[in-house]
Amino acid sequence: CTVDRLCELLDLQNRGKEMPADKVPA
Description:
flat; mainly alpha; single chain
């Protein structure tokens, strides 16, 4: 991934941890 923040959010969403799908930029 190129963007650290974005990758982190996507990772969290993938694991179903803290980031709800609606919080992650499309």
